[in-house]
Amino acid sequence: MDRVGRVALVTGAAKGIGLAIAQRLSRAGYDIAIADTDATGARALAEAIRRDGRHASAIACDVGDRNGALRMAEEATLALGEIDLLVNNAGIIRLGPLVNFAEEDWRELFRVNVDGVFFCCQAVLPGMIVRRRGNIVNIASWNGKLGAPNFGAYSATKAAVISLTQALAREVAPHGIRVNAVCPGIVAGTPMRVEVERQGKEFGLPPSSERARIIPLGRLATPEDIANTVAFLASDEAAYMTGQAINVTGGLWLH
């Protein structure tokens, strides 16, 4: 990967997809700011990255709190330098039919999944605009392109992330900043997958092992599959790509 020695800020990076993204970008030569509500996990990953020869900083942060997001960006900059790449990965999931979906769950989903992306972008963009360069990758979902029963509230948040990505990409392109989204399919081996399986039982949803049968490539995604796509979008090989929402679904969703 090109342009080594830059700084990436990855939210929700203490575990799952975020952890894989942080590790992948570290191997590509980025110094990594690891932001997560799980301060212990963030510190453990930062220590592992430092052992591998890169600089890393752990930051405890709730991205759905605007002041917290601003402090996160300030801490990352003080620890590692100006932020070149923001990966908005932090997110949560709540399942259930929309007809009786709890208002508090609806608002918490939007607070973290949508407000969190918005606040983090606001936190890093002023510096990127001044420097006339920067890169943002938002982790959306294939559910943001296809609504499904019991996933309606989550799907709404991820559709919002895709639309935000497209609008922001056009706004900041004149400043030399690219903004793209990644839309994972069914990803195995993450805390969110565990939560989907747990909540899904209540609504009679099949386990992901059964759903894998309908995936054209014949397997679930791994966190590394998503991380590799993020690394590509962060690279100069994707220099002419902005405003895109890239599916990483094994052929499960094609639009």
Structure, described:
The protein has 255 residues and is α/β, with parallel strands linked by helices. It has a single domain, classed as Rossmann fold, CATH 3.40.50.720. Helices cover 46% and strands 15% of the residues. It has helices spanning 16-27, 39-51, 66-80, 103-131, 152-172, 191-202, 208-211, 223-234, and strands at residues 7-11, 31-36, 56-60, 85-88, 134-139, 177-184, 245-248. Strands 3-2-1-4-5-6-7 form a 7-stranded parallel beta sheet, with helices on both faces. Helix 1 packs across helix 8, helix 3 (66-80) runs parallel beside helix 4 (103-131) and helix 4 runs parallel beside helix 5 (152-172). The chain starts with 6 loop residues before the first strand and ends in a 7-residue tail after the last strand.
Q: How would you sum up this structure in a few lines?
A:
The protein is an alpha/beta fold. The protein has helices at residues 16-27, 39-51, 66-80, 103-131, 152-172, 191-202, 208-211, 223-234, and strands spanning 7-11, 31-36, 56-60, 85-88, 134-139, 177-184, 245-248.
